[in-house]
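# nightly structure sweep
# worker-07 picked up a monomer target from the shared queue
# config: single-sequence mode, recycle default, output format = structure tokens
# input follows
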Amino acid sequence: MCGYQDLAAETNQRRADAVHAAALGLGPRGWAAAAGISESLLGEWRKDPAFDGALTAAAALASAHRVASPGQLNGFQLRLLLRSLARSGRLGAAATSAGITLKQLARIRQNSPQVNSLIEAATLHGRHRRGRRSGSAYRLVHRDAAAGPGPAGPSEKRSP
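# output follows
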């Protein structure tokens, strides 16, 4: 396969990441962030009844068992927050993707110098990365024969 990624396998993994985020009590923005996709692509994926049912069931499970502690970060949410900051450097969007408000994030940062240091480092990385970005990035993927000929449609675009 020459080291190319399999698009179908990658898409399935990303869908599983979104369902995992739903099971941990995050909302749709967190589902998209966990999958590493845009919210609009998540909306396209939700047209698949099986995937939408899995998201709905996972979110219901999280709600019924009060999985997410309001205003607190678990390890998964911290990873989402740091990854989002490292990609964009935008604190508000990163906090929302992790399922917390800016006020809650400020309290967490004040109470935990270690978390604050991680957030500062990720923010600096994101700002530096944002400044050097130019144009679109492309990657090669392997598509199986069942997917048909031609390039991937717009619904298979990844968010930066």
